[in-house]
Amino acid sequence: MEDIEAYGLLHERPLPVELPPLGEELPAPAKKRRRHWLRNSILLVVAYLIAAVLTAVQPIPIASARLAVPFPGGAPMIFGLPNRPFTVLVIGLDRRPTDTGPSRTDTILVLRIDPRSHHASFLSIPRDSMMQIPNAAGGYDRDRINTAYVYNYSSKDESAAPRALMTTIEHNLGIKIDHYVTFDQYSAESLINAMGGVSIDNPQEFGQSDYSDDDVHVVPQHFVKGDLHLDGYQAVAYGRIREGSSDFDRIQRQQRVGAALIDDAASPFSIFRVPSVWSAYRKTIGTDMSLRQSAGVLALLKRVPDDKLKTKSLGDAAVSCSSCTASIQLLDPTKTEQIIDDAFGDSESGRLAAQRLAAAGVTP
Q1: pLDDT tens-digit map of 54-100
Q2: Which helix or strand (DSSP H or E) is residue 286 part of?
Q3: How many CB atoms lie within 10 A of CB 308?
Q4: In the 8-state DSSP scheme, what is residue 244?
Q5: Which of 61, 69, 89, 236 makes a 20 to 30 Å CA pair with 244?
């Protein structure tokens, strides 16, 4: 009983607290440790998303790779592009200052991007390739592919001509085109200048003493073999000169410039040129893509390592048409199948192209 009473007294009367000697401060009360796991988790998620967005726009180049933080849904979700392989038709127009109507296409290039595997390919189509071209009556006529833009041009609908060229490619080669971009030599010059020029490795010396981009002003061009840094005017001339070369040589030069531009854009220092590049792009380029989607295409191309960017040309499948009255090329279906298979890494696309060419009756 005494023990129980003593126990109760201990609970009713607190134990005496030992006080420090006179002149000394009382110890600070112990602080309870606060749990910051929620705050830290939120900060971590925010930091991750910022890093993902920044590296989606500008990946980090390390050796031959271009690293980016994975983003939920991928860069396509950020930029409103398909999360599957998609294509952009790049149409280069040979436009003169006096032109008031349609211009013939000087460059026809299919850009295919796979955002999941970070692969991309340039597939050039010779402008003199014979194909079935859509006409105003809803049917098709056989002619060079570069006439599709001219025959279907409309001053009231700027998308009519590019879409006719998109239809031509799908009808004759089975390649579905998702978007298009159009530009002329002056647009390309402005864009390349905005990027600070372009550096290329020129494999062969060539030039043209009477080169002109407007048939009025002659500016001689000469390109030595080796590493070159070209401004906008020089880069356009490099891809346009016909003297002493074939159309297939021009395609290779154009692809060389395009690949070099992508490589230069992947540099972290290119981020400082974004405002001037976007200004030139908005003023000079025609496209069915929004600015958000256009930015996405560039961002995805920046993520493609050099060894995963392929440049192919159907010029390697072209055969001169001996029975044609003009200089027209016919695409060999077997070689076309091989080239598209290699470019896209998709045997089904190659087989479909061969079948479509044969069905259109535009093969040798």
Answers
A1: 666 666 666 666 666 666 666 677 788 988 999 999 999 988 777 77
A2: strand 286-287
A3: 16
A4: T
A5: 89
